[in-house]
Amino acid sequence: ISGTLEGLNSISSSLRLGQNRLSGTLPLISASELDISGNDLSGTIPQWLGNISGLQLVNLDSTRLKGTIPDNLLPTSSLVLSHSGLSGSIPSALASLSTLQVLLLFGTRISGTIPPISAGLQSLGLGGYDALSGTIPSATSTKLACLYIKQTSLRGTIPRTYFMPQLK
Length: 168
Prior knowledge:
mainly beta
């Protein structure tokens, strides 16, 4: 599929158009699941995306989007922004969101320190071109099943809480 995403604003449930030849900027969309990865999208992540009620999944992997992650972008399940031109820091509200299960930001220009990690996070991917610094924050408990950290300036050790089974 090629063209732009214009005219798709009436879709309210799920919009999955990954790996096509779509171009342009991200128009106003109200879908609770948005996967437009692998397309030639440009511009920035719009603030209105974080205002979508019931937003669950955002996958903008492998796009040409630039700018920062909006502070109000808080999907309840997954946020995949890897392999894009994003920069700035990881919003603290995002990293501590208790329902967030997947946070993949590798291959970006994200910088700064990693805020405290949510106990519900299952997959965390960081590294590549980013300029993350400091240490990997500990978590009181975690369901982390996949940890991908590559080519960062992080130092220290991976907290033991990431690997310890939950005691009941």
